[in-house]
Amino acid sequence: MGVGRDRVTMKPPMAIHLLTGDDEALLRAAVSALVAELVGDGERSMMVDEFDDPDDELRQVIDAAQTPPFLTDKRVVVARDVGRFTADEVAPLLRYLEDPLPTSDLVLVAGGGRLPKKLTDAVKSVGTVTATSAPTRARDRQGWVEDQLRAAGLKVDRRTVGALGDWLGEDAGRLDGVIATLRATFGTGAGALGFDDIAPFLGEAGGVPPWDFTDAIDRGDTTAALTMLGRMTHAGGRHPLQIMAVLHGHYGNLAKLDGRDVRSEQEVMDATGIKSKFPAKKALENYRRLGGAKVKRAYELLAAADLDLRGATALPADLVMEVLVARLSKLR
């Protein structure tokens, strides 16, 4: 006589996701890809509840997550801009995360304000927190670009990956559109693409981070410094006075080292207020290359350009900045 067994119905495991990032395009693309993965072959219109209206309340999100699916295996609940809720307002959500419904996938998207730490910690304990921002360091950014291309099924040679990373600059969110265009044009089965293949689909180069700009000045590369100046003011949208503030801060740190017998990164950090050793090391190297007299000259150039930008001359602001950057890069 056989031993009878109860039939066990397996429910699909729930998933809790929190996506963060300061680039709206990257964040939006990551959410779209995640929701598509969670839905799979299912019917999106029957599975997905999305809350992206500023007037949506957190209780609506929780109610949707606690509602069993109808005619589908699971429900996918997406709540955007959860940073707009205060620590007190997320308390009911924290209680839900202690015992989430097994048939609901909950996708929380940062934005709208600062995320309460309790919410981030709660998601980490039961689910996944994904940072969607691209790396800020140029070398790391190149690797990130290569990973995105590979994930999209595109083969691009190393030189082209580097050129594409340089072209993106700070505007990493534009990569998703470039990838979509390249996939539509070449497909995913083509051989390795070179820069000449992708160049026709690229527009104006993106902005660059301030440290790339000041690095070019420090090494005396006038051409690169002027190119980055143009990218910061046009694609990057920075006003000339904002760039002046970057330069004042850069040379201000060097001026704080004048007359001091600093020999280590820590001593530079103590003297300038720089928070980490790598930029402190660069500041020390730059000061040693320039010396006190040239740092003083840099301040004179900055002061004159500042007056010109504020009306002391009829020269256009772009020209004032170009002359300033060229003169600063020549100090080395």
Computed over alpha carbons, the radius of gyration is: 26 Å
**Helix content estimate:** 40-55%
Count of discrete structural domains: 3
Overall strand count? 5
Q: Average pLDDT, to the nearest integer? A: 85
User: What is the C-level CATH assignment of the largest domain?
Assistant: Mainly Alpha
Overall 3D form: globular
Number of helices: 15
Structure class: alpha/beta
Distance between the termini: 93 Å
Percentage of β-strand residues: 5-15%
What is the string of SSEs from the N terminus onward?
EHHEHEHEHEHHHHHHHHHH
The biggest sheet, with number of strands, parallel, antiparallel or mixed sense and barrel status, is:
5 strands, parallel
CATH architecture of the largest domain: Up-down Bundle
Strand order of the largest sheet: 2-3-4-1-5
CATH topology of the largest domain: Zinc Finger, Delta Prime, domain 3
Low-confidence stretches: 1-12
